[in-house]
Design a protein that fits this description.
The complex is a heterodimer. Chain A is of the alpha/beta class. Chain A has eight helices and nine strands. The chains are: A alpha/beta, B mainly alpha.
């Protein structure tokens, strides 16, 4: 039905590899170790959360994957090589161009590749419909609420049908109600199009609700301390939020996080 | 009356007050400045009449107006000359300022090489450079134009330079991730970001271009058919034709106001959809 659909998500363990980070380290200024010995394999259909306190290198890891900087050591390997349009990004701020309409903002990735608006109009409409903004293509960002701006940002990230969507604490600045709503909508969206997501957060509850894999990280130096699998099936909804299974997982993840923080405290 | 009703009534009264004050504000924005001008003219007129001030010291507004009408051909020609120089100087200042800003932005080396000259030109008073320019440059229009340009281009340059640097960091990263070329980054990201800054510079430069044109005319002081308003003021002062001085002065003032209004309107038209400075708040 859609040009934006990936192959159906397979169960964990049977998913094809998308990206592999092997022994990644990043040292700033020659003396600040932001990230040390990080290895991570991301598979098609994964929803991976990077969870940890500030300074644990989770944003650094994301910037390395995005190609915004190079690792000091280690390698990032894309299965079958990396092509333009493989990555979609959502930052903590909506990061929209204030002078451009919603549709023009979502058009940006295509525009930078030299495609005309007419040619990709269907994809833009579809992406806006997926985030529930099909009635606002001509609105300017200034006219939208914080949650709606974030939806535009998400639409822009998925409009190119990327192999990997990177999200850097995208809902951290929103109020709790909007945040829960967007969490639900993000999962609905993911089940619809089957995209692969790496999601940076410092909220245990958000990471358990959203992900099937949680990478717990510690600071000074930033590193991975534990990987926890959340084996609850999708779709997850409000019922999952109040289930014993959810509570049990948050306990496990909280304990892991506490330990990660405790190691340095 | 129930509690809810009285609260509604309170709310309504406040909203009504707000609507009324908005309406008043809309009228006052035009009425008050206009009234001040009219009042000033009346006061001026009465002062002259009541104190019997001779017209060769301070002419009344009526006399200045008569002079303006009588000299309309002479002053009209001078106005056109000054206007032409001002518009040309502003056009060259905008082109030169924006192009230099882009050059500085694209090449750190060019910025290091040329920025000192831009600053030196800016901080040296134009009156002191003008005589030199008049020695080296023969063409009378070019002379005046160069002076006006030196005065007007710096605010465009410095504001646009600032604007080109003021792009959102995340947007910059986004453009990098999507593989934007240098050119795309400039056109799609940096120039739109710089637009409000540029327009701020344009407002200043518009006034400065007029000042530059006038000052240059004072210094060059050439007479004849090709002379502008500043020369007419000088000439009138030698002849003690005070009403004509006032008439020419009024024209210069009017040109300044028109330039300011035009740049303000342009700025509003370009920014009204998206920039904070041009958006009216609802509440």
């Amino acid at each position: 039905m859609s040009q934006m659909t990936h192959p159906a998500t397979l169960p964990l363990g049977r998913r094809p590899k998308v990206l592999e980070m092997a022994g990644i380290a990043k040292v700033f200024n020659g003396n600040v170790t932001a990230l040390k010995g990080m290895s991570l394999t991301v598979n098609a259909g994964d929803f991976v959360s990077l969870l940890g306190p500030s300074g644990c290198g989770k944003s650094t890891a994301l910037r390395l994957i995005a190609g915004l900087m190079n690792p000091t050591s280690g390698r990032i390997m894309w299965e079958g090589g990396q092509a333009s349009g493989d990555i979609g990004v959502v930052f903590q701020e909506p990061t929209l161009m204030p002078w451009a309409t919603v549709a023009q903002n979502v058009y940006l990735p295509f525009r930078l590749r030299g495609l005309t608006f007419v040619k990709v109009r269907d994809k833009i409409d579809e992406a806006l419909a997926l985030v529930g903004l099909d009635k606002f293509p001509d609105a300017y960002p200034r006219e939208l609420s914080g949650g709606m701006k974030m939806r535009v940002s998400i639409a822009r990230a998925l409009v190119t049908n990327p192999r990997l969507i990177l999200m850097d604490e995208p809902f951290a600045a929103l109020d709790e109600i909007t945040r829960q709503k967007l969490n639900n909508d993000l999962l609905a969206l993911k089940s619809k199009i089957g995209c692969t997501v790496i999601f940076v957060t410092h909220s245990v509850f958000e990471s358990v609700f959203l992900s099937d894999r949680i990478i717990v990280m510690a600071a000074r130096p930033g590193r991975v301390v534990e990987e926890i699998t959340v084996d609850a099936p999708y779709p997850r909804d409000m019922a999952f939020r109040t289930s014993a299974n959810y509570a049990a997982h948050t306990q496990v993840v909280s304990a892991a996080l506490l330990q990660a923080i405790g190691e340095v405290a | 009356m129930s509690v809810t009703n009285s609260q509604e009534a309170l709310f309504d009264a406040e909203e009504a007050r707000r609507a009324r004050s908005r309406q008043n504000e809309a009228v006052a924005r035009w009425l008050i400045p206009l009234a001040v001008v009219v009042l000033t003219v009346i006061l001026w007129d009465q002062t002259v009449k009541l104190n019997d001030i001779p017209h060769y010291i301070l002419p009344g507004p009526g006399r200045v107006w008569d002079q303006l009408v009588a000299d309309r051909v002479l002053l009209g020609q001078a106005l056109l000359v000054t206007l032409r120089i001002t518009v040309m100087a502003l056009a060259v200042a905008v082109t030169g300022g924006v192009l230099l800003a882009i050059l500085f932005n694209q090449s750190r080396f060019a910025e290091l090489v040329f920025y000192p000259y831009a600053v030196i030109l800016q901080v040296t008073p134009i009156v002191s450079i003008a005589p030199l320019i008049f020695i080296y440059v023969q063409d009378p229009t070019a002379r005046v134009l160069i002076c006006a340009w030196i005065v007007a281009f710096f605010p465009i340059l410095s504001n646009t330079t600032l604007g080109l640097k003021s792009t959102d960091h995340n947007l910059r990263d986004l453009f990098t991730i999507y593989g934007a070329s240098r050119w795309q980054r400039l056109i799609r990201l940096q120039l739109p970001s710089a637009l409000p800054y540029f327009l701020g510079g344009l407002r200043i430069a518009g006034g400065l271009a007029l000042i530059g044109a006038i000052v240059a005319e004072y210094v060059v002081g050439t007479g004849g058919a090709g002379s502008g308003l500043a020369f007419r003021i000088l000439e009138a002062s030698y002849r003690l034709n005070i009403p004509r001085m006032f008439a020419a002065l009024a024209l210069i003032g009017a040109v300044g106001v028109v330039i300011f209004a035009l740049t303000a309107i342009l700025s509003h038209l370009l920014l009204r959809k998206w920039h904070e400075s041009a958006i009216a708040r609802d509440t």
